[in-house]
């Protein structure tokens, strides 16, 4: 993944809904606000947590039930109420909360069976397929969580970058040039791509440069909202890169 660890942070402040603000909303007294925030957390982090549980020795059914129960317990106990932003790196905070639940609460918790009770988010079928495709060399649950966490951050950044191309009415060009963001070689040369889109070859080269730069900015904006001190962003980006390579 071609990520520039020392890219300047995005100063435009486009993405104001941060991971920590979502956490605070998930602990809100307003049930509608809390439910919407929790759903956002589930959409982004359900699978990394599931993969961690599954790699701890649980079957697919038990891991899915446990992950659902974790989020259900978060709602019931208002786990995120009173949490202060920046108390830890968000990935560490979430993983620690899961482990605490597994060790101290899972044995006595009533599992949230699929089809019974309120489901937070149903990802069971996808989760099993994704897990079976995981490389076997992810030797520990924590390492697998870290990798899937990193992928979720990258995928979120890519989705936001694509939205910008949709706004500029160039989503097709984004899809063609997207492999360059991970350092892959394009199937076609710049000249051929330029001809297809009615652009000059130099314009394609500029587009690739801007895409890579903007991707780095968006990614850093995502990362900086998960850490205690913005000065730690370079270290966290490097950690993310290492996690992706594991």
| Secondary-structure element series | HHHHHHHHHH
User: What percent of residues are in strands?
Assistant: under 5%
- Average pLDDT over all residues: 76
Shape: elongated
Based on secondary structure, the structural category is mainly alpha
DSSP helix fraction? 55-70%
So how many helices?
Answer: 10
Major sheet summary line: none
- Report the C-alpha radius of gyration, rounded: 20 Å
Number of domains: 1
End-to-end gap: 12 Å
Which stretches are low in confidence, meaning pLDDT under 50 for 5 or more residues running? 3-18, 112-118
Q: Would you count the extended β strands for me?
A: 0
Main traits of this protein?
246 residues; mainly alpha; 10 helices; elongated
Question: Care to describe what's here?
Answer:
The chain has helices spanning 19-26, 31-55, 60-77, 90-105, 124-132, 141-167, 171-177, 190-197, 201-224, 233-245. By secondary structure, it is mainly α. The longest helix is centred in the middle third of the chain and has 27 residues, at 141-167. The two termini are 12 Å apart. The model is unreliable at 3-18 and 112-118 (pLDDT under 50).
Structural topology:
Layout: H1 19-26, H2 31-55, H3 60-77, H4 90-105, H5 124-132, H6 141-167, H7 171-177, H8 190-197, H9 201-224, H10 233-245
Helix pairs in contact: 1-2, 2-3, 2-6, 6-7, 6-9, 6-10, 8-9, 9-10
């Amino acid at each position: 993944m071609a990520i520039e660890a020392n890219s300047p942070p995005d100063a435009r402040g486009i993405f104001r809904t941060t991971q920590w603000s979502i956490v605070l909303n998930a602990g809100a007294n307003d049930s509608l606000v809390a439910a919407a925030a929790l759903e956002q957390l589930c959409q982004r982090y359900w699978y990394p947590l599931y993969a961690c549980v599954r790699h701890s020795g649980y079957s697919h059914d038990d891991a899915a039930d446990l992950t659902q129960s974790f989020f259900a317990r978060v709602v019931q106990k208002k786990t995120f109420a009173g949490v202060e932003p920046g108390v830890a790196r968000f990935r560490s905070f979430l993983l620690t909360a899961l482990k605490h639940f597994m060790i101290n609460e899972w044995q006595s918790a009533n599992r949230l069976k699929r089809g019974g009770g309120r489901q937070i988010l149903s990802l069971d079928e996808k989760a099993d397929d994704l897990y079976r495709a995981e490389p076997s060399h992810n030797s520990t649950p924590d390492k697998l969580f870290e990798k899937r966490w990193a992928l979720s951050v990258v995928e979120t950044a890519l989705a936001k970058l694509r939205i910008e191309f949709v706004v500029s009415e160039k989503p097709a060009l984004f899809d063609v040039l997207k492999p360059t963001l991970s350092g892959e070689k394009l199937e076609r040369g710049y000249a051929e791509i330029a001809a297809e889109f009615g652009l000059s070859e130099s314009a394609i080269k500029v587009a690739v440069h801007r895409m890579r730069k903007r991707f780095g900015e968006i990614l850093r904006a995502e990362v900086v909202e998960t850490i205690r001190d913005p000065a730690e962003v370079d270290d966290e980006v490097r950690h993310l890169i290492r996690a992706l390579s594991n």
